[in-house]
Amino acid sequence: MSVKDCILIADHLTYVYGSGTERVVKAVDDVSFMIHPGEMIGLIGHTGSGKSTLIQHLNGLLAPSEGSVYYHGKDIHDNGFDRKTFRSKVGLVFQYPEHQLFEETVHKDVMFGPKNMGLSAKEADLRAYEALKMVGLEDEYFYQSPFDLSGGQKRKVAIAGVLAMRPEVLILDEPTAGLDPKGRDEILGLVKSFKEKQNMSIILVSHSMEDVAEYVDRIMVMDNGKLVYDDVPEKVFAQYKHLEEMGLRAPEMTYITDELRKQVFPSLPVVTTLQEAKEAILGTFLLDSGVSL
Amino acid sequence: MGIIKTIKLTFDYIRRNEEGDVEGITTAVDDLTLDIQPGDFVAILGHNGSGKSTLAKHFNSILHPTEGTVLVDGKDTMDEDKVWEIRQTAGMVFQNPDNQIIGQIVEEDVGFGPENMGVPTKEIWERVENSLKQVGMYDYRKASPNKLSGGQKQRVSIAGVLAMQPKCIILDEPTAMLDPQGRAEVIRAVTQLNQKEKITVILITHYMDEVVGADHVYVMDKGKIAFSGTPREVFSRVEELKSLRLSVPPVTELAYELKKAGIPLPDGVLTREELVEEVSKLKKEGFRRIVR
């Protein structure tokens, strides 16, 4: 895909904390990448690697010390750039977003964003309804207090609050932290459906290599403010020794098949997900025995 | 006699509306009896809302039973005179390290508990030193907690509990907010405390792979123990766990899927090494023999 199709371009972004003081920290250090429509990207890196600082640049919450962010080719920090509309187009869901719920009812809470954009009450109402449907919350909860919902439901409502602004890019910072395994799958399945049904671009910040391997098409790895890898999961996770040096790891499936390759089946490929591991191992067993199951 | 014992423990949350009238009652823990042995590493699994955290808060007298009894090292948590003794016996570590650290310097933070207990100054410093060494954070004793990584902060929180010389540590999702290295550091530190110091560990988590080393795993649902057993016993029940919104460690799930596809692997494979061993055994025996 060409530069023309890009929604967002980060061009040599650098962000310096504490400039002019003795402790200058480059939280983001000369980072460049492009985001295309319908991409689902995993952003990984240890705590303090610069992920959070980076994503705050992508919707203009932070302005870079050097470099630029372009939205459909326009520099978002140019004079006259409509940053208000832009912020609704690049939606940011923070960690534990349910802590930010505040309205009397679920529906009102989700309406807050669209109303803030200056939309009519009728339009905001419609957007809220649409967003709550998108996250799969049943109608019976719409007019209840968000505080009476379960943890997983609250998080869905918080995500709906961002969806109601109809973003082109949705950035989620650790959307599954603290959820049970089923809850994690539900949230990530939902996010993937936004990509598939609405062609939304997704950036998923995660500490779970399993989740990243399972759901994303492309992984960006941050370390010390630098973008160290930007590639498909197989390629990135094949570098697990380097990832470990950065406080990360590969998914368990990569390690398992790696051990099997060393000790049992030399021809086993590098895999990252359960499904791939299963198929690769079954296939190798078949080849090995010459018998079909 | 168990270090922590609950006898027919029930806990009801009362929900009230804005006027303060009772709207309903939620039973978070329901007639639950368990007995945790000293020195054990116990894990509690359960989906969000299954009652795990409510149960754990009974173990150091943060919550008190609506019905039934909780005994910590033989002391009834309803006995108001024993609250401080109970909290010294059973210390708690929570999910968010930033909410638990109060000191400006690591060693100050760790010394806070014993100081509060009235321990003599000299002994406080001994305890701080030992506790920090036990979690591998002694080199950071003079550091400011806000300069530490998540895993380091959580280990400081654990040291803070250790400085009170507890018999039991309860950890409520201590790794939920940590990166992979931080998670590994915390689980390693906790495992060592259990093995070397014989401290009873009760670990609540949503990460199945963190509990494969436990002595006993309890699975909670609707405020009750749905089932329990060794990790191998519990993780052999893949479909039941999934129906309770849980899962099994990745390697266990892979072995389970391979078995369903016709490869005769045992149930409850818990580690990479086990799987590699089983698969290599099958290869040596000749796969032809085992194909239907």
How would you concisely characterize the structure shown here?
Chain A is an alpha/beta fold and 293 residues long. Chain A is built from eleven helices and ten strands.
Task: Outline the structure in words.
The complex is a heterodimer of chains A (293) and B (292). Helix content of chain A is 40%, strand content 20%. Chain A is of the alpha/beta class and 293 residues long. Among the domains of chain A are: 1-81 and 168-183 and 196-233, P-loop containing nucleotide triphosphate hydrolases (Rossmann fold), CATH 3.40.50; 251-293, no CATH class. In chain A, helix 3 (106-116) runs parallel beside helix 5. The model of chain A has no long low-confidence stretch (mean pLDDT 93). Chain B is of the alpha/beta class and 292 residues long. Chain B folds into 2 domains: 38-65 and 77-231, Rossmann fold; 249-292, no CATH class. Chain B has helices spanning 52-58, 83-89, 106-116, 121-134, 150-162, 180-197, 231-235, 238-243, 250-260, 272-285; strands at 4-16, 22-36, 41-46, 67-72, 75-76, 90-93, 168-172, 200-204, 216-221, 224-229. In chain B, the strands form 2 sheets. A 6-stranded mixed sheet of chain B has the order 6-7-8-3-9-10, sandwiched between helices. In chain B, a hairpin with a 2-residue loop joins strand 9 (216-221) and strand 10 (224-229). The radius of gyration of chain B is 21 Å and the shape is globular. In chain B, 49% of the residues are buried. At the A-B interface, helix 6, helix 10 and helix 11 of A face helix 6, helix 9 and helix 10 of B.
